[in-house]
TrEMBL record:
<dbReference type="GO" id="GO:0005524">
    <property type="term" value="F:ATP binding"/>
</dbReference>
<dbReference type="InterPro" id="IPR001412">
    <property type="entry name" value="aa-tRNA-synth_I_CS"/>
</dbReference>
<dbReference type="InterPro" id="IPR045462">
    <property type="entry name" value="aa-tRNA-synth_I_cd-bd"/>
</dbReference>
<dbReference type="Pfam" id="PF00749">
    <property type="entry name" value="tRNA-synt_1c"/>
</dbReference>
<feature type="binding site">
    <location>
        <position position="246"/>
    </location>
    <ligand>
        <name>ATP</name>
    </ligand>
</feature>
<dbReference type="GO" id="GO:0005829">
    <property type="term" value="C:cytosol"/>
</dbReference>
<keyword id="KW-0547">Nucleotide-binding</keyword>
<comment type="subunit">
    <text>Monomer.</text>
</comment>
<feature type="short sequence motif" description="'KMSKS' region">
    <location>
        <begin position="243"/>
        <end position="247"/>
    </location>
</feature>
<dbReference type="InterPro" id="IPR004527">
    <property type="entry name" value="Glu-tRNA-ligase_bac/mito"/>
</dbReference>
<dbReference type="InterPro" id="IPR008925">
    <property type="entry name" value="aa_tRNA-synth_I_cd-bd_sf"/>
</dbReference>
<dbReference type="GO" id="GO:0008270">
    <property type="term" value="F:zinc ion binding"/>
</dbReference>
<protein>
    <recommendedName>
        <fullName>Glutamate--tRNA ligase</fullName>
        <ecNumber>6.1.1.17</ecNumber>
    </recommendedName>
</protein>
<comment type="similarity">
    <text>Belongs to the class-I aminoacyl-tRNA synthetase family. Glutamate--tRNA ligase type 1 subfamily.</text>
</comment>
<keyword id="KW-0030">Aminoacyl-tRNA synthetase</keyword>
<dbReference type="InterPro" id="IPR020058">
    <property type="entry name" value="Glu/Gln-tRNA-synth_Ib_cat-dom"/>
</dbReference>
<dbReference type="Pfam" id="PF19269">
    <property type="entry name" value="Anticodon_2"/>
</dbReference>
Length: 468
C-alpha cells in the first residue's frame, strides 16, 4: 500500500464486472500519463465489492488489456473487497467523532417517505430522526445502517482540473449509507478510504463521478484528510453523438487486438487524442505523450469515437512497424508452421496497403497456400481462354530466365508486353490471379520474387493448363 510522500499518485480503479472498455482504457491512459509526466506513481485498484457481478475472467481481461497497452500499475494491484475491515473501521471512527450516525429507518419507512415526496412533487432526501439522536437511545435489537452526517448549510466547491470550478449547495447532499445493515461497507466509503490509504493525490476519472466527488468530500472532511485534486473527464460518444455502443466500437480492448487486429501503439495514440490535444498533431509517440501530457489539454466536451480515424492511424503504425515483429503478429492468423523468414521478407510490400493485422494476414495468405489454388470469384473471371493462353506464353518466357530478381523480371515482362502490344496491367491481372488466387496483392514482380522461381512457375502452369 502506497503512502503519500509529496509526489503525484494517480490510480485507475475499474470494477471487474465485464471487459476493459475503451472509456476505461482512456481513463487508465490519462492516469498513467499524468503520473509519468510528473515523475509520480500510477496505481491499480480492482473495485470488486460487487461480489455477485465481479468475476475472475473479467479481472484477467482487465489486466490483459492494460498489459497490451503498456499500462500496468507501478505496484501490485489493490483489491477493494479484501480491505472491507479497514473500510468498516473508518465508518466506526466517523461514528465516534459524531460525523456519522446509526439509522434505524427500515426500507418500508424509506419507501413510504419517497412515495410521499413524489406525490408532493418534491425532491426526496433522507431526513432521518436518528441523525441527531443520542447514542443512548439506539435500540440494541434492531438492524441499522450507518449514514454520514452530510453538511446541510453552505456549499461545497471543487476546483476541477477539467470541469473548472463547480459548486453545489450542501442542502443538495444526502446522508448516504456508509455501512449496510449487514455491516458491509458501501462503494462510496470504500473508494475514499482506499484513495487515502494508497496516497492518491489526483483522482482522474469519468465525469459521471463528478456528483460522487461532493459526497465523498463529506467523508474526507469529516476524517480531516487532505483533499485530492479532481479531474473529471467527459465521456466518449459514438460518431453520431449517441451514447457509445457496440455498433460504434464499444467493445473490450481485447477485441481491438484479437478481432480487429489493431496495434497497441495505434490504440494508445488514438485514445490519447480522444479528448486531449496538442495543436494539430495526430501522431504522437509514447515518449512524446509523456513529455506533452497535462490535464489542461483535456477538453470539457464529450469526444466522438471515429473508427475510420483509428484504422487510418493503425495503418500508419503498421507501415512504421518492424517487419519481423509484424510477421510474429500475423503468423498465427495465417496458420501453424508459417515460414517466419518468408513472411518477414514479404512485409515491406504487404504492409503498404493494410489497415490492420486482419488485412495483413489476408494479403499474406497466398504465400502459404498449397496448390491447387482456390480462386476467388473475381480472379476466376479474369482467367478467360485468352488469358490462359497468355499465361502459357509468360510461363515459357520465364522458364528461360535464371536471374529471378525484381529488376530482371520487370524488364522481361515489360519487354514481352511491348512485343504483344498490351499494357503491363493487362499482363499483370491474369498473372496475379494465377499466382495469388485473388485480384489484390503486392506488386506482381514482388509476388514472383517472394514465391520463388519454382513455386511461381508451378502456379502459372497450373492455371495455364486448366480449361475454362
Amino acid at each position: 500500500m502506497a503512502s503519500a510522500s509529496g509526489g503525484v499518485v494517480t490510480r485507475f480503479a475499474p470494477s471487474p464486472t465485464g471487459f476493459l472498455h475503451i472509456g476505461g482504457a482512456r481513463t487508465a491512459l490519462f492516469n498513467w500519463l499524468y503520473a509519468r509526466r510528473h515523475g509520480g506513481k500510477y496505481l491499480l485498484r480492482i473495485e470488486d465489492t460487487d461480489r455477485a457481478r465481479s468475476t475472475e475472467p473479467a479481472i484477467a481481461a482487465i489486466f490483459d488489456g492494460l498489459g497490451w497497452l503498456g499500462l500496468e500499475g507501478d505496484e501490485p494491484p489493490v483489491f477493494q473487497f479484501a480491505r472491507s475491515e479497514r473500510h468498516a473501521q473508518v465508518a466506526h471512527q466517523l461514528l465516534e467523532r459524531g460525523a456519522a450516525y446509526r439509522c434505524y429507518l427500515t426500507p418500508e419507512d424509506l419507501a413510504t417517505r419517497r412515495a410521499a415526496a413524489q406525490a408532493e412533487r418534491r425532491t426526496f432526501r433522507i431526513d432521518s430522526e436518528w441523525r441527531d439522536a443520542d447514542a443512548s437511545s439506539w435500540p440494541s435489537d434492531r438492524p441499522f445502517v450507518v449514514r454520514i452526517k452530510a453538511p446541510r448549510d453552505g456549499e461545497t466547491t471543487i476546483a476541477d482540473e477539467v470541469q473548472g470550478t463547480v459548486t453545489v449547495a450542501n442542502a443538495e447532499l444526502d446522508d448516504f449509507v456508509l455501512l449496510r445493515s449487514d455491516g458491509t461497507p458501501t462503494y462510496m466509503l470504500a473508494v475514499v478510504v482506499d484513495d487515502h490509504d494508497m496516497g492518491v493525490t489526483h483522482v482522474i476519472r469519468g465525469d459521471d463521478h463528478l456528483n460522487n466527488a461532493f459526497r465523498q468530500l463529506a467523508i474526507i472532511h469529516a476524517m480531516g484528510w487532505p483533499e485530492p485534486v479532481y479531474a473529471h473527464v467527459p465521456m466518449i460518444l459514438g460518431g453520431d453523438g449517441a451514447k457509445l455502443s457496440k455498433r460504434h466500437g464499444a467493445v473490450g480492448v481485447d477485441a481491438y487486438r484479437d478481432e480487429m487486429g489493431l496495434m497497441p501503439e495505434a490504440v494508445f495514440n488514438y485514445l490519447l487524442r480522444l479528448g486531449w490535444g496538442h495543436g494539430d498533431r495526430e501522431e504522437i509517440s509514447r515518449d512524446e505523450a509523456v513529455a506533452l501530457f497535462d490535464l489542461s489539454g483535456v477538453g470539457r466536451s464529450p469526444s466522438r469515437f471515429d473508427m475510420k480515424k483509428l484504422l487510418n492511424l493503425n495503418g500508419h503504425y503498421i507501415r512504421e512497424a518492424d517487419d519481423a515483429r509484424l510477421a510474429e503478429l500475423v503468423a498465427p492468423r495465417i496458420g501453424p508452421d508459417v515460414d517466419r523468414a518468408l513472411l518477414t521478407a514479404a512485409m515491406p510490400q504487404l504492409k503498404l496497403r493494410a489497415k490492420d493485422l486482419v488485412e495483413l494476414a489476408a494479403g499474406a495468405r497466398f504465400l502459404f497456400t498449397q496448390r491447387p489454388l482456390q480462386l476467388d470469384e473475381k480472379a476466376a473471371a479474369l482467367l478467360t481462354d485468352d488469358a490462359r493462353g497468355l499465361l502459357a506464353n509468360i510461363s515459357d518466357r520465364l522458364k528461360t530466365q535464371n536471374d529471378w530478381t525484381l529488376a530482371a523480371l520487370e524488364a522481361n515482362l515489360k519487354a514481352y508486353a511491348e512485343e504483344v502490344g498490351l499494357g503491363l496491367g493487362k499482363l499483370a491481372q491474369p498473372l496475379r490471379a494465377a499466382l495469388t488466387g485473388t485480384t489484390t496483392s503486392p506488386g506482381i514482380f514482388d509476388v514472383l520474387v517472394l514465391l520463388g522461381r519454382d513455386e511461381a512457375l508451378a502456379r502459372i502452369d497450373a492455371q495455364a493448363r486448366t480449361e475454362v
